[in-house]
Amino acid sequence: MRSAHPRVVLGLHRSRHERCLLTGALDLGVTSIDTSTNYLGFRSHTVLARTAGDLLPRLTISTKVGYFPGPERSEHSLDPVRLYEAVEQAARDLGREPDLVFLHNPEHSLRDIGDHGRDALAQGCAALDDAASKGLCGAWGVSSWDPSPLVGLVDPTAPRPSVLMSRAGLLVGVGTLDAVEALATAWGLGNGSVWGMSPFGGNAGDPVWDRVDPRMFLRNGDGFSRTQAAFRAAYGLPRVGTLAVGTDEPAHLAQLLDALAAEADEGTIHEYRALLRERSSGQPV
Known about the structure:
This protein is an alpha/beta fold and 285 residues long.
């Protein structure tokens, strides 16, 4: 067995939740998984408990609350009572308290409530903080696919998350990169408390990775594949201490773990961010 990799979390967004994937991850030293109440058609927690209940005590589990089953499709809510109850339900379905619970994509509801956004975000944070204080989860955080609407809504008097998670990688726009850093500053979070997700933009097999060579972002990139280089570079876009990545193949996960031996070229990453900013502002690149 390899030594543990605290900077890598196995994401289960598109996973089949098969037991062999979890045992394979554990064999590789990956002891953290990330899921959500709404993954696998709102069955993620119960399927994990049924197929791998004996493995769950060996894993650090993060999950998310914010989406709920609706009559026709899922709905999002920041209602503090529903959020608190969702954390309670997550613990029951998993058969244990999750180590970390994220407020899932709060921007989904904040767009529709206008001037009440600051209060709604504060109340949602307070609900998760209350759940953590009562032992329903070890800690809580905020997970946002589009964090830009959250900037400016942070109430300095409201409870602060211990972790912020958002998109990371070469396909992330400068607006998202800036928003993550602004939120981390507002909540007093260091790089070690910021997580990245979706480092390949949702698909490691996307043709974009055949047209660009991410190895330019590594100091010693010749010995690594383009996929490995894109994964390693994602730790700097934005700067994160942990990266959640999904796969159903332990062999693919092993290849990504090998990429951690690579050294990112900070100068090239800084130059790339400057180019993104110039393009966003309409200046010539």
